[in-house]
């Protein structure tokens, strides 16, 4: 790159930047000049001070010493002018902590004005008006404290809150069609709408969300006992929010205590409960991922959501044999979730290889963990779909097809995850984050695995079809037996074959994991 002319103002100039966090010196007098028209990058290990330096250079973190300027404009003397010339794509999205004062208080003002307007409604009943003077400010305070409590979680686990919001938004988006259809049906029932809305309001008034707003109405109607109970619910809700908010704020402002090296019994989660042995340790580790990692949990949500969409597609006519089998497709998809399981291990995969674990033990542990988390959910959803369909005689067939599909998918994944590593969201990232490096061939491969799992489940599906069209408990029970036997055989075969492949490809998988994770 040609040298820049000394008369040209550099795009970025850092001079003697220093930043300390307590006794730790994160950045120690860095000097850097980036000429206009050039392209620079900061490379270094974790803890080198890259993020801290860029945060100071872009006006996100005030330095303890030194200066930073963009095209000659000092970032901290004239931040507005400097930031107009900066494009900053942050690695993560902060929740609540970058709002302006106006943005923070505007929702509170709107809530307070809305609550104050409700006073007009209670003017005809003095006792209700008196209660409203107490309960409406209490309701506003509850709303504000609830928002602050949610914000306080962002300091303790920003990824957890973001992922929880993402999962809820995903479920709400998927269920938009059924919800709108239900509302349109409600509106189409004419005179019944008022009664139905009244039932919804009455139920909501007993919740922590609605109790405080319902007290004046109860007193106006002469229901003094109900009013007092709802007032108690409102006060208890406010107290619980206060305690939770205070706990989070204190926890965020106090440095965490160091745990002793010895630890205590029962602090290892599922690993501490598992029996000894390589397979058992892998089982416990895999189960902890499935139950604690949102990247896996999103797939468990799909199992519960898809039957609802199926009912929507049937026009809510669920008392049919077809709806009884609505759990089979999500069970099949759930079995294929760990097709690239090693990718989610990240740096922990190096620890797995360091133990010199046999491939068969690793494959078996991962499969058992996935099965322990997913099979109970599949059984529960299967019982629910059969109950709604009214065809209890088909329950064995439904379980045979669903569990057979789940086992077949897990058997396939025991082999594929010994080959395939793909870029995935890092632990703590948004679970629906689009990761650079994901290619179309992965989607085509997953489609192929899905078709293969469906073909391998065909014997149980065929017997289930006979049970539906011919009838007879024998066919239904045969479908259960065949589904479990074939699925179990496929799962065990996948463990054996995948284990042999894993013994050969382990180091190569680690290299791919490091490459896709970017470290």
Note the main sheet.
4 strands, antiparallel
Number of helices: 19
Cα gyration radius (Å): 29 Å
- Which structural class should the secondary elements be placed in? mainly alpha
Order of helices and strands: EEHEEHHHHHHHHHHHHHHHHHH
Adjacency order of strands in the biggest sheet:
2-1-3-4
Number of separate structural domains:
3
Q: Give the N-terminus to C-terminus distance in angstroms.
A: 27 Å
> Into which percentage range does the β-strand content fall?
5-15%
What helical percentage do the residues reach? Answer: 55-70%
Mean pLDDT equals 77
Low-confidence stretches: 93-98, 253-268
**Silhouette:** flat
Number of strands: 4
Which properties best describe this structure?
519 residues, mainly alpha, Rossmann fold, 4-stranded antiparallel beta sheet, 19 helices, 4 strands, 63% helix, flat
Outline the structure in words.
- The chain is mainly α and 519 residues long.
- The protein has three domains: 12-83, P-loop containing nucleotide triphosphate hydrolases (Rossmann fold), CATH 3.40.50; 102-251, no CATH class; 274-517, no CATH class.
- 63% of the residues lie in helices and 6% in strands.
- The protein has 19 helices and four strands.
- The chain has helices at residues 50-57, 79-83, 101-117, 126-174, 176-187, 192-204, 211-220, 224-253, 270-273, 278-292, 294-313, 321-324, 328-335, 348-354, 359-389, 395-416, 440-456, 458-469, 473-517, and strands at 12-21, 24-34, 65-70, 73-74.
- Strands 2-1-3-4 form a four-stranded antiparallel β-sheet.
- A hairpin with a 2-residue loop joins strand 3 (65-70) and strand 4 (73-74).
- The two termini are 27 Å apart.
- The model is unreliable at 93-98 and 253-268 (pLDDT under 50).
């Amino acid at each position: 790159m040609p040298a820049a002319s000394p008369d040209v103002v550099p795009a970025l100039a850092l001079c003697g930047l220093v930043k300390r966090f307590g006794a730790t010196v994160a950045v120690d007098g860095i000097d850097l000049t980036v000429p206009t028209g050039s392209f620079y990058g900061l490379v270094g290990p974790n803890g080198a001070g890259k993020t801290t330096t860029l945060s100071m250079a872009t006006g996100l973190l005030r330095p303890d010493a030194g200066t930073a300027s963009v095209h000659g404009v000092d970032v901290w003397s004239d931040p507005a002018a400097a930031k107009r010339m900066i494009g900053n794509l942050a690695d993560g999205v902060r929740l609540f902590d970058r709002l302006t004062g106006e943005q923070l208080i505007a929702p509170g003002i709107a809530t307070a004005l809305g609550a104050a307007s409700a006073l007009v409604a209670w003017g005809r009943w003095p006792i209700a008006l008196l209660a409203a003077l107490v309960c409406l400010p209490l309701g506003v305070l509850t709303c504000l404290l609830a928002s602050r409590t949610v914000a306080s979680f962002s300091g303790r686990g920003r990824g957890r809150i973001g992922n929880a919001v993402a999962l809820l938004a995903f479920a709400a988006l998927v269920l938009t069609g059924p919800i709108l259809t239900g509302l349109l049906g409600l509106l189409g029932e004419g005179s019944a709408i008022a009664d139905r809305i009244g039932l919804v309001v009455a139920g909501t008034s007993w919740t922590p969300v609605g109790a405080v707003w319902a007290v004046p109405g109860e007193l106006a109607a002469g229901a003094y006992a109900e009013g007092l109970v709802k007032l108690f619910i409102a006060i208890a809700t406010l107290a619980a929010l206060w305690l939770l908010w205070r706990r989070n704020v204190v926890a965020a402002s106090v440095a965490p205590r160091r745990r002793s090296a010895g630890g205590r019994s029962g602090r290892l989660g599922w690993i501490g409960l598992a029996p000894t042995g390589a397979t058992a340790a892998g089982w416990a580790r895999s189960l902890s991922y499935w139950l604690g990692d949102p990247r896996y949990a999103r797939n468990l949500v799909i199992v519960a959501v898809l039957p609802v969409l199926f009912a929507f597609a049937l026009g809510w006519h669920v008392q049919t044999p077809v709806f009884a089998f609505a759990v089979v497709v999500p069970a099949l998809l759930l079995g294929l979730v760990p097709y690239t399981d090693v990718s989610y291990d990240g740096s922990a995969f190096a620890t797995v290889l360091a133990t010199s674990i046999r491939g068969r033990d690793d494959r078996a542990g991962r499969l058992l963990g996935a099965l322990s988390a997913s099979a109970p959910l599949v059984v529960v959803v299967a019982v629910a779909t059969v109950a709604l369909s009214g065809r209890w005689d088909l329950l064995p067939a439904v379980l045979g097809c669903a569990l057979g599909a789940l086992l077949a998918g897990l058997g396939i994944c025991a082999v594929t995850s010994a080959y395939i590593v793909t870029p995935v969201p890092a632990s703590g990232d948004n679970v629906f984050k689009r990761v650079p490096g994901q290619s179309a061939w992965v989607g085509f491969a997953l489609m192929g695995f899905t078709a293969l799992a469906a073909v391998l489940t065909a014997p149980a599906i065929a017997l289930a079809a006979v049970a539906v069209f011919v009838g007879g408990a024998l066919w239904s029970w045969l479908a259960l037996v065949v589904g479990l036997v074939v699925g179990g055989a496929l799962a065990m075969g996948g463990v054996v074959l995948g284990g042999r492949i894993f013994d050969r490809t382990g180091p190569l998988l680690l290299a791919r994991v490091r490459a896709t994770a970017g470290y």
